[in-house]
Amino acid sequence: MAEAHMTALLNYLRADPHVANVRHVVRPGCPLSAITAWEERHAPKKLPDDFKAFLLTTDGLDVRYDLILRGTAFPVGALCVNALANADVRPAPAPCAGPGDSDERPATGQNAVCVDLDDTCTCGRVAIVYENGDEAAMHVGFQDIAGVWHKLANTFSQYYRLMVVHLGLPRWQLKFTPVGLDPDAASWHRLLRPEQLAVDLGRGRMRRKARRKKSKSALQAQQQQQQQQAAAAAAAAVTSLSSATTRGTSATKARGASAARISGRAPLPPRRGSTTAGGSRPTSASRPRGRNDV
User: Fold this and answer.
1) From the centroid of its chain, how far is CA 258?
2) Reduced to 3 states, what is the DSSP secondary structure of residue 24?
3) pLDDT tens-place string over residues 115-145
4) How confident is the model at residue 227 (pLDDT cuts 50, 70, 90)?
5) What is the pLDDT of residues 21-42, one digit of tens each?
6) What angle (nearest 5°) sits at the alpha carbon of residue 39, between those of residues 154 and 155?
7) Residue 177 to residue 159: CA distance in whole angstroms
8) Is the peptide bond before 44 cis (omega within 30 degrees of 0)?
9) In sequence order, what are the beta bridge partners of 180?
10) Residue 57, number of CB atoms within 10 A of its CB
11) Where are the alpha helices (DSSP H) in the chain?
């Protein structure tokens, strides 16, 4: 499959009038013993089956070409895959975003590692990422200069087809980030792959629209939650204030009644059936004299 894609790519490039100096470095396949030794050296990590099949066919890929603009050749295109000897294993603890969407970021974890695929990438890093160090959660990712990983493809075969479709044009990986292509790279894509650029721009607009809609829904839900919390806090404050007012009114009445008793304005009546110390009922002379008795 890789040979068929490469043959079709070379024929397409050589037939394009804007392309010149197509250079393809033919490499022999990597021996199976070298792949086994690599996996033993980096155990328990194992290379994906489709990547191993590619290495058995050719130990890496190196295709470069120039673009002719106003009679001047510019070295623009490069389709490269590292040989097994340059497939270094490195840590990759940064978060990983979904295809073209920074909101979908499955965490790679502190134990995540990656295998470099393209040392010629000038705008970041392309590698096979093992999320959380798990072989069952592998994908091909692109790490931009900010250190954020973006998912390019689920398998190496899918990544290889993406690279061929984009003809290895400068910084094509940026199409799968929220930032997108810079103006200089977009001009080269518009010259050689205008239809693919139009498709990618349309997909980018759809992704941005979906992100805006998702952000708007999340903002509305957050505002609604804040309003509910504010209403609950206001109701609790009103209840607390009402309780405090009731307690204050009761305390004021109690203080007024106590003050009235102390001043003699409202003497307490004797209890029914109560007697004095001598056993007789209290007389007018034995009662405390109020202000009206004077």
Assistant:
1) 68
2) strand
3) 999 988 989 999 999 876 556 678 999 999 8
4) confident
5) 999 998 999 999 999 999 999 8
6) 10
7) 15
8) yes
9) none
10) 16
11) 2-15, 32-41, 49-57, 156-165, 183-192, 194-263
